[in-house]
Amino acid sequence: MGKAETMRSQARREFDTWAGSYDRSLLNRFMFRPSYLAFLEELHRWRKDTPEPFHLLDVGCGTGTFAGMLAATSLPAEIVGLDYSAAMCQVASGKAHQVGMQKRVRFVTADSEHLPFADGSFDVVTCGNSFHHYPHQQNVVTEVRRILRPGGRFMLIDGFRDNIVGWVTYDVIIAAVEKHVHHAPWSAVDGYFKTAGFCEVRRRKLNYWFPLLLTVGTA
Ligand SMILES: C[S@@+](CC[C@H](N)C(=O)[O-])C[C@H]1O[C@@H](n2cnc3c(N)ncnc32)[C@H](O)[C@@H]1O
User: Fold this and answer.
1) Are strands 212-218 and 199-206 parallel, antiparallel or unpaired?
2) For 98-124, what is each residue's pLDDT tens digit?
3) Average pLDDT over every residue of 161-178
4) Ligand 1: nearest atom to the Cα of 111
5) How far is the CA of 84 from the centre of ligand 1 (A)?
6) What is the pLDDT of residue 50?
7) pTM for this one?
8) Domains of the chain, start order
9) Given the CA of residue 12, which atom of ligand 1 is nearest to it?
10) Pocket test residue of 15, 23, 169 for ligand 1, highest count of atoms within 8 A of CB
11) Which residues contact 124 (CB under 8 A, 6 or more apart)?
């Protein structure tokens, strides 16, 4: 098995196993929830003067918590969550059914590198805490650019490893626990966005402990 396939299948195994207890993980409080809130803040700011419905894809959606939070706001989003782990998608669909949100939110099992959607079919793509699992990160950013309409946004959050706290957290501890992962430095992420054709690329650091980097680009 090549390195890329090892990385992909290890992620799928890890999250297929974790799906049942994922929502009870302590990481939810420290890493995942701050990411959902940052996405919501960005979306509210961007869409506040535009009442038209918009299509959002959440890549690496996990158990669909962000999709559920977004569907519960006043933002008129039609939401698709995509994840490589069928078990995570199953938990996500179950949660959406439980709260009667299945009409506004659906989940698809697929690989981030091959998004099963037409060119220009989404207004915004979010991707939180999943990018470090992708063997070909540039390909994913290029693929996201393909499915965004002109003027659409890509909002990416992943571990910030460009200071000492982030380096110890992600390159030492998380890398030892998860093995086949790669937290890209800001310079690489910036390069991926620009190579894919995004403009107005900006970044924001979140959190002191478990630092995160939010990168936003316009298609
Ligand atoms: C740490 S979880 C983050 C989930 C969610 N975004 C959140 O913030 O709670 C990472 C997710 O990325 C998914 N993932 C890993 N590799 C993937 C790939 N190649 N394509 C799509 N999803 C992938 C995993 O299955 C997992 O659900």
Assistant:
1) antiparallel
2) 988 888 999 999 999 999 999 999 999
3) 95
4) 20
5) 7
6) 87
7) 0.97
8) 3-16+29-42+52-218 (3.40.50.150)
9) 25
10) 15
11) 43, 46, 54, 55, 56, 57, 148, 152, 153, 154, 155
